[in-house]
Amino acid sequence: MGREKRYSELSEYELNQEIASLRDKARKAEQMGMVSELAVYERKIAMAKSYMLNPDDFKPGEIYGIDGDPGTYFKIDYMNGVFAWGARLNGDGREEALPISLLLKLEQNQI
In 10 A of CB 14, how many CB atoms? Predict the structure, then answer.
């Protein structure tokens, strides 16, 4: 029995298949009221989507919106693979890592 491939080893087609499967599982979990299971699938979807993006498009020092958290902004300190490390503006200043698929480019005057 072969080991499961990591997202980093999948083609874009395989990632799309995985995302569709995860969305289906997430929908079922939501319908059944399984909140923690839904959160796990949403995190996996965000991770899979991150591998379809180019980390070089995300720059340290820049500020991004956070998908699913309107009005919250994130400043990147540094990149590590598909994770942006930094802190939320107006947050507690705690460093955290977000998958790049959760970061939204801002218009010049959005903040």
Answer: 14
85 pairs with which residues across the strands? 78, 97
Beta bridge partners of 84: 79, 98
**End-to-end CA distance of the chain, in Å?**
51
What is the enclosing helix (H) or strand (E) of 84?
A: strand 83-88
b vs e for 37-69, b when ≥16 Cβ sit within 10 Å of the residue's Cβ?
Answer: ebeebbebbbbbbbbeeeeeebeeeeebbeeee
CA–CA dist 91, 111 (Å, integer): 15
Residue range 42-81, pLDDT digits in tens:
999 999 999 999 999 999 999 999 998 989 999 999 999 9
